[in-house]
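Sequence in, structure out. Go.
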Amino acid sequence: MSLAEVTTWNITKKQYRYKLKSYFGVFSSLVAIQLLAILFSLNGTGMSGGSSGTFSYDVNYYTGDIIQVLVMIWAFITAIIITTKAYRYDDYSFVTNRLISHYSNILFLISASILAGIMVFFSGHLFRLITIFLKNADSIMVSELTLLDTLKVITASILYIFLCASIGYFVGILIQLNRLFSFLLPVLFVGALFVDGLNNDPTLFPSIIFFFGSEKFLLLLILKIILASALFYMLAISFSNRMEVRP
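Output:
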């Protein structure tokens, strides 16, 4: 046995570093998605107006919500992609097992979520600057954030992105377990949306969004998302044990 005993953590770190270096396309696609989101956001996210006598006004609202949503979708898709065989077989360049592979994937998704959350914040500010220069407006109002508010916004953004990544990872494992899930899951999702909206008063998905999206206390939001993400990752690891072993 070597003097430097090979441990699970050492192999996990090596795989994690390898993935940070080799999954360059993931990060380049993140940049592309954010540029696309900024372009979409230039149309605004809402408007209102009014008049009184000869006076009238129009108010256009511009936010970074589209940037956040598209990056969350990016995280979901990225997590699915890294569960595919091509990515899984890369792990066999190391002395490894499935658990170590999962650990390194989760670390990679954590890192990607942190980077994406920070980039969403700065992309939002870039979007505001572009809007100020491009839009011909009589007056512009911009909300100001304190340092504490900024940290809260970035943290919340990272958490939502990571939650979507955990869901994507679970979905990816299900699809790798049985390709039929690639058809069943979208059908079930659309079917659930349809059934939930039959009475023109959907409750299921709005309740889920409200549960995570309306939390005002950051610590509770962190707890909710960590527990939900941990559940999806544990389910993914559990289901992956049923997958065939590489020959």
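Check: The radius of gyration is 22 Å. Residues 98-134 form the longest helix (37 residues).
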